[in-house]
Amino acid sequence: MLSSTMRCLISRTACRSQSYFSTSSVKNTEKIWENPWKHAIPEKTKTFATVEEVPVDWSFVERLMPIEVVPDVPKHDSYPTPSGWTPPTAAGKTHSYYVRRRPDHLLPLYLERKRDLLNEKTLDFDYVELVTVRNVDGDVFACEHDLRTYLEEQLGHSVASHVDELKGRIKVKGAPRSLIEQFFYSKGF
Amino acid sequence: MLNTFLQMLSRQFRLLISNRAFSAAVQDATSSTEVADTRRELWRKPESPFVKTPQAWVSSLETVEDEKLGLVDLHPDIFRTTPRIDILHRNLTWQSVYRNVQMTKMLTKAEMPGGGRKPWPQKKTGRAHVGSIRAPQFIRGGFANGVRGPRTWFYMLPDAIRIQGLCVALTLKHAQDDLHIVDNIQNLQNGDSKFWIDLCEARNYGYSVLFIDDCDEVSGGLAEAQQALPWLNVMPVYGLNCFSLIKYDTVVLSRNALDRIEERLLTHIHRAGPMNKKYKYMDMKEKILQEAEGEEHPLMPPVV
Known about the structure:
heterodimer; A: Translation Initiation Factor Eif1; 6 strands; B: alpha/beta; two-stranded antiparallel sheet; elongated; structural constituent of ribosome (chain A); ribonucleoprotein (chain A); Ribosomal_mL49 (chain A)
């Protein structure tokens, strides 16, 4: 039954100008295995629409596109800006050390919270907050000395610090990041 | 013996003299147009007074002797970074490890053929109580805690580490005088392998040389030479990696490649947004599945 209907279908389609089942290859005398590349991928017929270019002001759309590279800082009227940001000044180049800004024009100060010893009274772990200063060029030890004296003067207690000269980093324990930021701004970095 | 030694000595002496002459000539010609041409404006050069701008000679590959065409400034963020060997090591380890796949799969007792029948009765035979001849205590039995592959060691290093690794490798190469800049490596006249051996010998390039160009197709003399000489290789800029930079004794960058490398690395260093980008399969899925779209295997025809 099924085969007879199939045969009907084939005979009906065969009399049409186009074959129903396959591409043009069946009509040709060429066998499939002679050029398998031709039959593996269906023939692509491209229909291109006619294109007309309309002048549109895309500047407002471009403004919404994501930023690829951190842009240069726009010119401000006065510093520090309302957010407290200041650009590096010429005074920063007079010291025996230099702190480079991050690519996004901020100071390279990173806050890190680490677990300290177990507090035996409360049986909770204490946490310490360490501030890392990165990208220190030149004499890192001089930078650390100046920073520590400034912090101890401001805070009134001693501050622990650690210098990694190869990486140009200083770690400070026991001082808030804002105070360290203030020190580097005052130095002109 | 003595003769050859004398020859070598004289050659070294000649080289020394010629080098000095060249350097003097370049110093004289700093104001001329040819040398000023190779000086360039560096994008977002760090303002730190402690960072010096590294420089490199630009030479030509047309002659055996090292003819210097001028000096070129290199970006200090890339060619004068802190020599972080640990970062370089992480990159090299990652490169060797991330592609490892263990395909071994030891069969368990369930996966071994047969063994469904109890080999002998549970009791009264004097033998061990066993349920299957594929039990792990049997020879030719299955494995209890075997290697169950496929197992992969794939991981991605953070972008920042990979970028910094490239910068460190380039810095080390430059610091060790193993980084050379040439004006052009495309369509060179001489493809004779003797010429290239002499060239590398005269310029003290060392055991192996890697040429890097902006374009991923190389033609001319260098293409012939790299066919003939196994220690001489060519690579496009997008193939640049820490392992190859360290593997080859000398790295020779073309002038275009230098520009391209600096541009790509600096855009990534100054990239907006977070540096630790997440690599999700869903984001890459379409690209991965379409990867073999235009591929035609030369030997295997497609299944019709």
